[in-house]
Design brief:
By secondary structure, the protein is mostly helical. Helices cover 78% and strands 0% of the residues. The chain is globular.
Length: 105
């Protein structure tokens, strides 16, 4: 098989995976997992959340254009207004990174 074909196929599979995860009903629970008192779970959820939103930026931008109101309502109410200082700090940092990245627009 042609290596270029395999690379394009792999990229398409990864893009499909990201789109599937972002649009899946279970993704909505990630905001709750980030706020859990169990540090290991909340840290893993936060790292996964950051990874999902900072890789494959065109897929994320497309997702955000469709789910803007829901996503930022949840982001604001559950992360930016969290009683946990670390959660708020990480949410502000991630939001700043997203807003400053031209590929996210």
């Amino acid at each position: 098989m042609n290596q270029d074909f395999l690379l394009l196929f792999f990229i398409e599979c990864v893009d499909f995976f990201y789109r599937y995860v972002l649009e899946h009903e279970q993704f909505k629970k990630i905001f709750d997992y980030i706020q859990l008192l169990n540090f290991k779970i909340s840290a893993d959820a936060a790292a996964t959340f950051k990874e999902l939103l900072t890789r494959h930026k065109s897929t994320v931008a497309e997702f955000l254009s469709k789910k803007y109101d829901w996503f930022f309502a949840e982001y604001n109410s559950k992360l930016l207004e969290s009683s946990n200082y670390i959660t708020r700090k990480l949410a502000i940092k991630l939001l700043g990174d997203m807003l400053l990245d031209r590929k996210m627009l």
